[in-house]
Amino acid sequence: MKVLAAMSGGVDSAVAAARAVDAGHEVVGVHLALSRMPGTLRTGSRGCCTIEDSSDAWRACEKLGIPFYVWDFSERFKADVVDDFFSEYAAGRTPNPCMRCNEKIKFEALLDKAIALGFDAVATGHYAKIIELEDGTRELHRAATWTKDQSYVLGVLNTEQLAHCYFPLGDTPSKDLVRAEAAERGLSVAQKPDSHDICFIPDGDTRGWLAEQIDMEPGPILDDQGEQIGEHEGAQAYTVGQRRGLKLGRPAPDGKPRFVLEIRPKENTVVAGSRELLDVDIITGIRLSWAGPPVAEAATGEWFEIDLQIRAHADPVPAKAKVVEDEDYQILVELAEPLKGVAPGQTAVMYQGTRVLGQSTIDSARSRHYQPA
Hints:
Shape: globular
Region (Interaction with tRNA): 148-150
GO cellular component, one term: cytoplasm
CATH architecture of the largest domain: 3-Layer(aba) Sandwich
Low-confidence stretches: 40-46
Catalytic activity: S-sulfanyl-L-cysteinyl-[protein] + uridine(34) in tRNA + AH2 + ATP = 2-thiouridine(34) in tRNA + L-cysteinyl-[protein] + A + AMP + diphosphate + H(+)
Largest sheet: 6 strands, antiparallel, barrel
Distance between the termini: 54 Å
Pfam families: tRNA_Me_trans, tRNA_Me_trans_C, tRNA_Me_trans_M
Strand order of the largest sheet: 12-15-14-13-16-17
GO molecular function: ATP binding; tRNA binding; tRNA-uridine 2-sulfurtransferase activity
């Protein structure tokens, strides 16, 4: 099999490429240049896609004896990930740029180009598994160990994309074993820190970055009864569930902290209230996609049981869902137990056991205690 190994410059992608070579595949490494002005060095474990990462990816390919290329996807990344990020915040939603990058860059732009060049599959260092059924169709499943499972961020993959995905680390029990294997292979990235935070905001100051991209104006912070309790510097910089940064001028009547309940960008208003009011029971979703064959109930509109996960490292919660024909949303989810701080714009990934069924973008989240305007 002819395999294109996506080389981030980290230890996971390096070992994934090495295993693809060991499996006898014809492997070519490629690093994606996603920024036109990449930083020369990473700051500890913050950020990724820097010149340092590109050099690390090249050294790994040299060690493995495979060709190495750099592909410039910076324009596509800016349009599909960066611009989408601040337009979503400007609309009062909380986007997940890593999901959008996987959807639009790593498993759309990259995969399309790989197939066009004659590659059979794209290999990445994600911790997830693909199971092929007797009829040849593929399903996406959690990795062998849930502590490193990354199936959530792959929930955007569709059936056609799964047919060309290759995840060599899916059965690996721990990251420590991957690092040990990298060291045994003489890969210089064996002890390189994992990247975290948003890659195009490497200092981690999302609010400061948004302030440079979006026109913000001061406005009122209201309580859940509509009474003004403070003032903000720009509603778009807040997200549902946020506690820090509210700077309210008066304490709550019960003396407990307040949290952001709602953002109203058209009114430039933030609503804050008690933690209890963050409980969400009903979620509606848009941009629905299936990771493999849809469940049978998708065609009939019947309810089906799922576990729902709304963040990469969150615990899934039991729920039931049904596909609906509605002009505002495509799927309705009723939670068996409430979730807190669910924000429009987040990604809701559906599971049955270890299988990833698919995902949708949260359009609304409702609570029996508090109804957003």
